[in-house]
Amino acid sequence: MQTSAAAMSQSSAHDPQSARCPRGISHLQHLDAGHQRFLNGQSQHPHATNERLKHLVQGQHPVAAILSCADSRVPVELLFDAGFGDLFVVRNAGNACTSATIASLEYGIQALDVPLVLVMGHEGCGAVTAACQPHGTLTPELHALVSCIRQGLDEATFNGDLPAAFRQNPIQSARHLVRGSALIRERIASGQLLVEAAYYTLRHGEIEWLGAIDANEAVHPGHLRRSDPSG
Ligand SMILES: [Zn+2]
């Protein structure tokens, strides 16, 4: 049995059973389709009417939970061409994984049966910059948030490699999320949840998929390739 499990683990290096959730992958493809419409100037702005809101009074069934930065340049519904009731969005400065973040996402997973959690960082993130260059005057609460972001970053980024830090941040935040939630680890391991990291470039408006995080915090690229407008 151990040999079989080991062989499976090795053979699935690019498509690991522990990070495979068919429903989550399907919803990730749905998000990517909306993002491609946005990139191509073909946004449909679905589910944006008062009628849709009335329909949702009885309950919500979002397709994904998204942890992103509070930055005004990261309007999640616009980036994925989504509307009312489509996305369960948690935002704070630096898409940091605090206890409130974990609790909010657990609600989305447990109560709303969301099969996909996307952790999305972005180019030029002020909170990540503060984490790498903590020389300014920060309030105690902001200092705590920035320290949370700094924990996962490579020390090399503290010497000025901000582009690397911007890209590391969503992966580290997703790992922190997996580490901090038994519910999330269990759902990933049982194939009920996909946790994916992504990076949003401001200058191109494009989202790059960085890979899925398994229950052991390993990153597995490959569920979606880099956004391809022709696809
Ligand atoms: Zn930011």
CATH classification, class level: Alpha Beta
| Overall body shape | globular
The secondary-structure element order is: HHHEHEHEHHHHEEE
User: Sheet with the most strands?
Assistant: 6 strands, mixed
Account of the protein in words:
The protein has 231 residues and is of the alpha/beta class. The protein has a single domain, classed as Beta-carbonic Anhydrase, Chain A (3-Layer(aba) Sandwich), CATH 3.40.1050. Helix content is 42%, strand content 16%. It contains nine helices and six strands, in the order H-H-H-E-H-E-H-E-H-H-H-H-E-E-E. It has helices at 2-11, 22-39, 50-56, 76-79, 99-110, 126-132, 140-151, 162-180, 182-189, and strands at 64-69, 87-92, 116-122, 194-201, 206-213, 219-220. It has a six-stranded mixed β-sheet with strand order 2-1-3-4-5-6. A hairpin with a 5-residue loop joins strand 5 (206-213) and strand 6. The longest helix is centred in the C-terminal third of the chain and has 19 residues, at 162-180. The model is unreliable at 1-16 and 227-231 (pLDDT under 50). The structure holds zinc ion. Zinc ion is lined by residues 69, 71, 94, 122, 125-127.
